[in-house]
Amino acid sequence: MNSLRITVWGENVHEHKSAKVKAVYPDGMHTVIAAGLRRLLPEAAVTTATLQEPEHGLTAERLRETDVLTWWGHMAHHDVADEVVKRVHARVLEGMGLLVLHSAHHSKIFRSLMGTTASLSWRDEGERERIWVCNPGHPIAQGIDRQFVIEKEEMYGEPFAVPPPEEQVFISWFEGGEVFRSGCCWRRGNGSIFYFRPGHELFPTYYDPNIQRVLANAAEWARPRGTWVESCPNVKVPLERVASA
Amino acid sequence: MNSLRITVWGENVHEHKSAKVKAVYPDGMHTVIAAGLRRLLPEAAVTTATLQEPEHGLTAERLRETDVLTWWGHMAHHDVADEVVKRVHARVLEGMGLLVLHSAHHSKIFRSLMGTTASLSWRDEGERERIWVCNPGHPIAQGIDRQFVIEKEEMYGEPFAVPPPEEQVFISWFEGGEVFRSGCCWRRGNGSIFYFRPGHELFPTYYDPNIQRVLANAAEWARPRGTWVESCPNVKVPLERVASA
Amino acid sequence: MNSLRITVWGENVHEHKSAKVKAVYPDGMHTVIAAGLRRLLPEAAVTTATLQEPEHGLTAERLRETDVLTWWGHMAHHDVADEVVKRVHARVLEGMGLLVLHSAHHSKIFRSLMGTTASLSWRDEGERERIWVCNPGHPIAQGIDRQFVIEKEEMYGEPFAVPPPEEQVFISWFEGGEVFRSGCCWRRGNGSIFYFRPGHELFPTYYDPNIQRVLANAAEWARPRGTWVESCPNVKVPLERVASA
Amino acid sequence: MNSLRITVWGENVHEHKSAKVKAVYPDGMHTVIAAGLRRLLPEAAVTTATLQEPEHGLTAERLRETDVLTWWGHMAHHDVADEVVKRVHARVLEGMGLLVLHSAHHSKIFRSLMGTTASLSWRDEGERERIWVCNPGHPIAQGIDRQFVIEKEEMYGEPFAVPPPEEQVFISWFEGGEVFRSGCCWRRGNGSIFYFRPGHELFPTYYDPNIQRVLANAAEWARPRGTWVESCPNVKVPLERVASA
User: Fold this and answer.
1) Domain for residue C177, yes or no?
2) In chain D, which ranges are continuous DSSP H helix?
3) What is the domain extent for residue B73?
4) DSSP class per residue in C1-37
């Protein structure tokens, strides 16, 4: 197979506004996410893009050369230009994979692909999360034990307002009593979409080897599967002529 | 059960621009659709609303009092105010049923609920359509034979760019050689969505007893199933205190 | 709507072999399940049947007069006659609803409908279970708060080897660190199937008002939706004659 | 990726009982299916097995060394030993891909994986079939035009009694007026299952380059995605100790 071209997109705002976040991710969360992917997928071409770049770093050309896009955003969802969201959306339908990370559940791109609010319950106290594998045979779960622990994470709880996942890969248990569908797969058009819950900006989640393994597996899983440039053609000439029986 | 409150929404533009369409539907397509529903669901409260009314006839209050909304649109999709689309979308997630008719596959409301383009192939020659039942036990297919014919209809052909239907009720055969997934069910949030293909403005499709039966069945099927006012709450107090094993 | 005819099927073995179980369910688990349904669905006709009766109480006639069947079994799965399983299976495809309770995940009827093993992890220590609602608008979750607690239950943990649920209604959190997809919906043929996890024989789970509410809601949800007597007909006469374009 | 190990299973009965079938497939249908796969997947290891071999050629060892199994059967479904069916079923859940061909819709293995009858309507007159692509981006549709024609085939018509396909790849149009969901994907356990309609024994369907392309694509798509040896473990030691909040 061809080597995978992955673009890691980062909102890159918390890291500059909060000293605590900067202490955890001095060069931005996106650089840590990218480093993990590079480590586990040495043949992939992994680059980054951020909100602050022109067109958020997501020009038409850049997207055309992206096989899989990862998306982390939170406080600046509304600063993402609608035009860029439409462009990403179209590219997903065309075949680009999309990994939606943590608070990006409320991003414009995820909500527009799901057609729902993607709302959930939450508590930001830093509590233990156990991430359980629902389908050990799923490609995204390969190399992961039956469960793994993140010692401190933000809690997300059900109900999670999304369409029924086409495959459920992970469900999380939280110390405080909640559960959450943490790893969910959908296909839209020709694109593969994976939502993965962990990744609060205050915690070193993206340094965790299990988290990195899941993201690398998911990038491979989301690899474009074929080509389809959509249209709505008027096919004027019938293929058949029928005479009633 | 309570009596069903159905609002039949009509774009109501072709009927005023085309003498041919006016000849078929002199009082608008929406009045014929509404009449069919009234005939088959005598206990339902069926009203109509059109694009031309203030807020397209779909105020917040009106939507709150609507259990099931039917939507026919075509040439004026872009004249529907985004604010109204958002309001309808939110109400579907809250529980209102939505019947999406024919060319409304490209309506803003359907595309935003599906997260896809809902594109398809088409040919406007007036050809025979056979509508086959895929699941004779489905509530929307009750009272329908194993198939029925519309003698002259616009053709819609695959590929139909929608998420995998959660239930496939009908598939159409066309004289000219095409096929189409004509009756598809999805749930989004708490709302039930049914797409039904036939209904070109040039043909008397909505007078057909089988078509009317399907719409009446679908309205009953799309009845709100429960209540859920969505939010994204911060649940500050944990339910449990855990000490590591 | 017509009044619902519910048959509560009980394996009825533990109750006679274990003094502990008999202490909790002196007249059998099925009588308590039936009593809860009668209380909440006063218009339903609720009867019971057990393994020990001729044909396990599930004659063709009895099934024909059953709209919804509930199934609890555990240690005697293999004593259920294959012929009866086939009969129940056929009746589900025809339209009868089926509520699969707790250890019946490994019953012949559930496995044959799912096409998978329905295996899971488990621990029988009596621990706290929190049952979370994933879709508060779902009919089976009506009248249930965002979550409820069973103080002592057997633990079931992921992975749960079933096809992707068509709707996810509940997910459980367990004191010992596990999670489980506790309330799952599928349609097979014309029948509606709901799996509901709680209900270990050593605990008074079926006396719990929330549990009883879920079962009553599920029985209403699983009501037959239409009729379809399946066959595989040779349709000798073509409907159309086609001459190539 | 590793080279794919494909076992082509043939019932191999019609070919010996009918001169007409023998004329089309002198060395059996399985040899032609295998030849097509070898041509298009030169790195794959393609072998055949038939009903008449000991254990139908499907010993535990043979299955362990099979990545994807194709299954054609018709008049001898009931001669397939239940024990072999169970073995194949378990191997699919473990991860082996399964391509179910034409009349194998009624095979024991397909019915037991689906949990439904897989019944359909049919007519054996040799009529034109147009196979439409529903999702041009799907890996199984790569290299296929928007539709292709088989000039003479048996007709299969809806309703097709299967669970909702997780992905719909093809739908067929028939000269005589019927439609059918001809290419359907499901996952069960860790195994990928593809049903593909064409392939009546009286017609040279398996020599057709489009048919061969679909089968080769499907074999690649059905490649095992991961490993999971299922069990139902008693996990005695809790991971957590909880003290109520």
Assistant:
1) no
2) 14-17, 19-24, 29-40, 60-64, 82-94, 108-114, 209-221
3) 5-221
4) -PPPEEEEEE---HHHH-HHHHHH-TT-HHHHHHHHH
- How many contacts, defined by CB atoms under 8 Å, are there between C and D? 119
Residue whose C-alpha is closest to residue D182's, from D242, D96, D105: D105
User: Would residue C18 count as lying in a domain?
Assistant: yes
Residues of D in contact with C178 (CB under 8 A): 235, 239
Is B137 in Cβ contact with C228 (below 8 Å)? yes
Mapped to the 3 state alphabet, what secondary structure does D117-130 carry?
CCCCEEEEEEEEEE
β-pairing, D97-101 with D191-196?
parallel
Which of C182, C122, C107 has its CA nearest to residue C147? C182
Distance from CA of D125 to the nearest CA of C (A): 8
Mean pLDDT is lowest, of A174-178, C73-77, D95-99, D227-231, for D227-231
* Neighbour tally for B156: CB within 10 Å: 25
Helices C209-221, C29-40: crossing angle, 10 deg rounding: 70
Q: Cβ of B225 and C95 within 8 Å?
A: no
Q: Alpha helix (H) ranges present in chain B? A: 14-17, 19-24, 29-40, 60-64, 82-94, 108-114, 209-221
Q: What is the CATH number of the domain that holds C14?
A: 3.40.50.880
Q: Whole-model pTM?
A: 0.96
Q: Say what the pLDDT of residue B245 is.
A: 47
Q: How far apart are CA A5 and CA A60, in angstroms?
A: 15
Q: Going residue by residue through chain A (245 aa), what tens digit of pLDDT does each one get? A: 568 999 999 999 999 999 999 999 999 999 999 999 999 999 999 999 999 999 999 999 999 999 999 999 999 999 999 999 999 999 999 999 999 999 999 999 999 999 999 999 999 999 999 999 999 999 999 999 999 999 999 999 999 999 999 999 999 999 999 999 999 999 999 999 999 999 999 999 999 999 999 999 999 999 998 877 677 888 888 888 766 54
Could you give the count of Cα atoms lying within 13 Å of A53 in the half-sphere of its Cβ?
Answer: 13
Interval C59-87: pLDDT, tens: 999 999 999 999 999 999 999 999 999 99
Chain C interface test: which of A171, A172, A197, A240 (most C C-beta within 10 Å): A171
Tally the domains of chain D.
1
Region B14-37: what's the mean pLDDT? Answer: 97
Identify which of D209, D202, D163 has the alpha carbon closest to the alpha carbon of residue D186.
D163
Distance CA C131, CA C151 (A): 11
CA distances from D148 to B181, D143, D195 (A): 18, 11, 17
3-class secondary structure, C80: coil
How close A96 gets to chain B, by Cα (Å)?
14
Q: Which two tokens stand for residue C185?
A: 């919906």
Q: What is the DSSP string of C194-237?
A: EEE----TTS-GGG-HHHHHHHHHHHHHTS--S-------B--S
Quick one: tokens of A117? 């609010």
In a domain, D216, yes or no: yes
- Separation CA D160–CA D180 (nearest Å): 7
Cα(D136)–Cα(B202) distance, integer angstroms: 31
pLDDT digits 0-9 by tens, C220-230? 999 998 877 67
Contact status of B160 with chain D (Cβ, < 8 Å) = yes
Q: What is the dihedral of CA B79, B83, B85, B89, to 10 degrees?
A: 180
DSSP string covering B12-25, please? Answer: --HHHH-HHHHHH-
In a domain, D68, yes or no: yes
Cα–Cα distance measured from residue D165 to residue D184, given in angstroms and rounded to the nearest whole number: 6
Secondary structure element (H or E) that encloses residue B207, with its range: none
Structure tokens at B184: 């598809």
Q: Is the pLDDT of residue B212 over 80?
A: yes
Euclidean distance between the first and the last CA atom of chain A, given in angstroms as a whole number: 51
Distances (CA, A) of A225 to B203, C212, D152, D235: 40, 46, 31, 39
Q: What is the ipTM of this complex?
A: 0.95
